[in-house]
Amino acid sequence: MRLFVTGASGQLGSEVLKRSQFEIYGIYSTTRPKVADVTLIQCDITDRTRLLDTMIRVKPDWVLHLASATKVEWCEANKELAWKINVDGTRNVVDGCRKLRSKLIFVSTDFVFDGNQGHYRESDKPNPINHYGRTKLEAEAIVSLHSHHVIARSCLMYSGKQGTFTSWVLKSLKRGEVSVASDIVTSPTLASEQASCLLFVVEKELQGLYHTAGAEPISKYEFVRRFAEAFGYSPDLAKPVKQEELNLIAPRPRDSSLDISKISSAGFGFSTVDVALKTLRDELEEQH
pLDDT band at 139, cuts 50/70/90? Predict the structure, then answer.
């Protein structure tokens, strides 16, 4: 089985590269991942000609499309570029899959929902309230036209990779305080579990739309409290604030937690917050 992974240097891509037993070709835009036994190719998904040529050369059985502009504030401030990466780039990937009859997994987001309901199922109607969510929903529509596709929606991804949510929380805790929204609820997802889930999807040859996220809905404030405890800090270093106090450019859904019963029924289980945080601590210790 041959996999073609876009966004190989991102926090999810690097976890897929580490965990896969399959033959992998990973593409990256700027930063070359440090990983053995993987063929790495520098290629930007918005460079249509180069991307299609690369895909034709590799002839993958499955394409895991993980490359994305994911910083919500950046997407709001750079709308055209975010659209080019998340929508036009996805169209290029889908066209390559169509030519080669490759199966496709696309990782999407809880931000396709407005957050008025929470515990969203796959059958619930999306209604994004920020530009990032709109680009991902448009990309979902493009992916859904491909004959064999999986759309895997996830939430608040975190990992041991530098420059991610984990780094921000740990640096803030070391400094002594972190202000976190108490009125935003999500389903935090450990990147290594998400990577294992995507490889499970490949093994089982699943198709369609799945919510693939952590098993426990929780406010960002409570999540950071638990995070602090797991890493030996006082949970009281987390200070609750309202979303509007954070002066964000892009509005966030109030409760975009995801119902994961469909992927659970297919046979894959995600961890609760405390179990996932213990795994994260172990993963960070392994890096040192």
Answer: very high
Domain residues of the chain, as ranges?
A: 2-159+189-217+257-274
Amino acid identity, residue 200?
Answer: F
Is 140:134 a contact under the CB 8 Å cutoff? no
User: What residue ranges in the chain does DSSP mark as E strands?
Assistant: 2-6, 23-28, 39-42, 62-65, 103-109, 149-154, 157-158, 178-181, 185-186, 189-190, 208-211, 218-219, 238-241
Weakest mean pLDDT among 79-93, 143-157, 236-250:
236-250
pLDDT of 117 higher than 90: yes
Instruction: Give the global pTM.
Output: 0.96
| CATH T-level fold of 2-159+189-217+257-274 | Rossmann fold (3.40.50)
Cβ neighbours, 10 Å, residue 29: 18
Q: What angle, 0 to 180 degrees and rounded to 10, lies between the N-to-C axes of helices 273-287 and 220-230?
A: 50
What single letter denotes the amino acid at residue 120?
Y
Vertex 98, ends 92 and 104: CA angle to 5°?
Answer: 80
Torsion of CA 260, 278, 158, 194, to 10 degrees: -40
Which residues make beta-bridge pairs with 106? 65, 151
Concatenated DSSP letters of 187-226: --EEHHHHHHHHHHHHHHT--EEEE---S--EEHHHHHHH
Q: What does DSSP say about strands 218-219 and 185-186: parallel, antiparallel, or unpaired?
A: antiparallel
- Residue-level length of the chain: 288
